[in-house]
Automatic annotation (TrEMBL), chain A:
The keyword Disulfide bond does not apply. It comes from Allorhizobium borbori. Keywords: ATP-binding, Cell inner membrane, Cell membrane, Membrane, Nucleotide-binding, Sugar transport, Transport. One of its GO terms (biological process) is carbohydrate transport. NCBIfam families: PRK11650.1 (NF008653). PROSITE patterns: ABC_TRANSPORTER_1, ABC_TRANSPORTER_2. This is Multiple sugar transport system ATP-binding protein. SMART domains: AAA. GO terms for molecular function: ABC-type transporter activity; ATP binding; ATP hydrolysis activity. One of its GO terms (cellular component) is ATP-binding cassette (ABC) transporter complex, substrate-binding subunit-containing. It is found in: Cell inner membrane. The keyword Ribosomal protein does not apply.
Length: 355, 285
């Protein structure tokens, strides 16, 4: 086991810089998720840790050793690829034992370590099969097994669950979390799915366009997003953003069409400053007729446990996720209430959080 | 259906008819000129069994075909791998072309050039060997050496095509597998041996059969290299097609030559079936 320190790392292809000076500290034994939309550089960063991409600037340390120019095989890391990258002509046992075979370990030792990993992953009955005879979830486990067998210092995951169907993804998510809890190997996990990141990671790194937007524990990111990008990216469905200005008494935000949005405490911004008022759909609830907000409903999506409503408050689009069952239809006006303490305030120009 | 009939008709006339007619002819005795064409059943095939010239032609052809195969397949795999993994080099296009050119060059001038290379007195091969103190060899007159010369010439020609097909194969191998192998600790040659070679097996099978079939059809290479003067091919390196030609147009025994062609067809057919069999087995695994 080891820590991974990434300091001011850059990646440039010619004049185009895709990673613009990124610093992340992955403590020993932790599970860090890199999330961000497609093209944000998270996979490139992971491949740089693995040694599959050259580093244009900065340093990467694994276990306090600078590995910038160290061959992948000497970094003592294991990586699980999105498409599993299993060797199609080898059996499951051969796939899992390939690295040990290359390292010229004795055969009984290889067999034992493969058997151990197979037991952890529930693959013991499949060792003689070929990858194409297994289901997607089983292949995913084999890819995991190939990593576990080597007992590496660091695990790297590159969107490992994105080829699985929704149900299996939830199941594998739990299994991965369970395996990490048992073997506690330092893990860096790349995903574009913020739910995966939220549920599995100790710490989340949100990236956009080659820079880090925020690093923090999952619930910190949810409760105190540093900017509108993180606020919109973390949480599903996305946070609602309503444009307005700080009221004269600084106790609320007033939108262009006169809707008053309450704040828990006086805003740390001067009156009249343009701001973005953020409120998560799940923090809106149906209120009595004299509630301050009124949602003009355009779409109703009942899922049984919850009801999703899409509509507008004034001119601005808003979605609400209500836990109670309400009978309503498009065209209705629904009074909504909210707890001001759940509201977030961002600067309209920079998008940065205002405390 | 109606639209492809003309194509089918042309295909049948130029492809199927000659095969069927050769099969038919092999049961007859015919001297090209006479109207009389008596049916003699399997008599031609019976005679083939005891024909020493035919047997030596069959043995020579088989040795050449398999010799070409044994040289071409590993050489093509290694060259294709070198070209593919050195693609950053500006010269990779040049290498590809250089390897492929022998395949498109007209056979006769190429063979004439090789004949000069192998020439006992004037050839550069003997000159080069003399640097290492090797006695000059009569490459094209010694029965064993001349077979080797033909194998070298045929391999040189077959190589370009095999490399091209292998390159296509290499380009289709998933990159992530090689990345996984790098992380697993494999060096370049280890990835080649443990990943590329087994994963290119279907291509190897295909290239093998194509190479073998063209090897069994060897004719002009032997005709030019192993004959002292054109038009008078020696019996030194007798190959099947040469034997057939002589029987048809020199000895006027068309039926007999047709039976030789049938034997050649049977061999080629068998090899193709073996390939399909192996491919299907691979599909089951």
């Amino acid at each position: 086991m080891a820590s991974v320190e990434i300091q001011n790392v850059r990646k440039a292809y010619g004049d185009v810089e895709t990673i613009k000076g990124v610093s992340i500290d992955v403590p020993d034994g932790s599970f860090v998720a890199l999330v961000g939309p497609s093209g944000c550089g998270k996979s490139t960063l992971l491949r740089m840790i693995a040694g599959l991409e050259e580093i244009s600037g900065g340093t990467i340390r694994i276990d306090s050793r600078v590995v910038n120019d160290v061959e992948p095989k000497h970094r003592d890391i294991a990586m699980v690829f999105q498409n599993y990258a299993l060797y199609p002509h080898m059996t499951i046992a051969e796939n899992m034992g390939f690295s040990l075979r290359l390292a010229k370990r004795p055969k009984p030792e290889i067999a034992e370590r493969v058997a151990d990993a197979a037991r952890i992953l529930g693959l013991a009955d499949y060792l003689d099969r070929y990858p194409k005879q297994l289901s997607g979830g089983q292949r995913q486990r084999v890819a995991m097994g190939r990593a576990i067998v080597r007992n590496p210092k660091v695990f790297l995951f590159d969107e490992p669950l994105s080829n699985l169907d929704a149900q299996l993804r939830v199941q594998m998510r739990a299994e991965l979390k369970d395996i990490h809890a048992r073997i506690r190997t330092t893990t860096v996990y790349v995903t574009h799915d913020q739910i995966e990141a939220m549920t599995m990671a100790d710490r989340i790194v949100v990236m956009r366009a080659g820079v880090i937007e925020q690093i923090g524990a999952p619930l910190d990111l949810y409760d105190r997003p540093a900017n509108t990008f993180v606020a919109g990216f973390i949480g599903s469905p996305s946070m609602n953003f309503l444009n307005g200005v700080i009221s004269d008494d600084r106790q609320s935000v007033v939108t262009g069409d006169g809707v008053v949005l309450p704040l828990a405490s006086p805003a740390a911004a001067e009156a009249g400053r343009p701001v973005v008022y953020g409120i998560r759909p799940e923090h809106l609830s149906a209120g009595s007729a004299d509630a301050p907000l009124s949602l003009a409903i355009t779409t109703v999506e009942p899922t049984g446990s919850e009801t999703f409503l899409l509509g507008s408050i004034g001119e601005q689009k808003v979605s609400a996720q209500l836990r109670e069952r309400i009978v309503t239809k498009p065209g209705d006006q629904l009074p909504l209430t909210l707890m001001p303490s759940n509201a977030h305030l961002f600067d309209a120009k920079t998008g940065l959080r205002i405390e | 259906m109606m639209a492809i009939l003309p194509t089918l008709a042309i295909f049948a006339y130029v492809r199927l008819y000659p095969i069927v007619d050769t099969l038919r002819l092999s049961f007859y005795k015919w001297d090209i000129l006479s109207k009389r064409k008596p049916f003699i059943g399997l008599e031609n095939f019976r005679e083939l069994m005891g024909d020493h010239l035919f047997q030596s032609a069959l043995i020579n052809t088989t040795i050449i075909a398999f010799g070409v195969l044994i040289i071409t397949i590993p050489a093509a795999l290694v060259i294709a791998a070198l070209i593919f993994y050195r693609t950053r080099s500006r010269l990779s296009g040049f290498y590809e072309t250089a390897v492929f050119i022998p395949h498109v060059v007209s056979l006769v001038p190429a063979a004439m050039a090789w004949k000069w290379i192998f020439d006992a007195r004037l050839g550069p091969l003997n000159a080069a060997l003399s640097f290492f103190g090797v006695e000059p060899q009569a490459w094209l007159f010694d029965p064993v050496l001349s077979v080797i010369c033909i194998i070298v010439l045929c391999s040189w020609q077959a190589l370009g095509y095999a490399v091209l097909i292998y390159l296509v194969g290499f380009k289709n191998l998933p990159v992530s597998l090689y990345e996984a192998a790098r992380l697993d600790g494999a060096s370049g040659p280890q990835s080649f041996w443990h990943l590329s070679v087994p994963m290119l097996k279907p291509i190897t099978l295909y290239v093998s059969v194509v190479t073998l079939i063209s090897g069994f059809n060897v004719y002009a290479q032997a005709f030019i290299l192993a004959s002292d003067a054109q038009g008078a091919p020696g019996r030194q390196v007798r190959v099947l097609v040469l034997d057939m030609l002589e029987n048809s147009f020199r000895n006027y025994r068309v039926g007999y030559a047709a039976s030789e062609a049938v034997v050649l067809l049977a061999i080629v057919l068998l090899l193709t079936l073996v390939q399909f069999g192996l491919l299907r087995e691979k599909g089951k695994a």
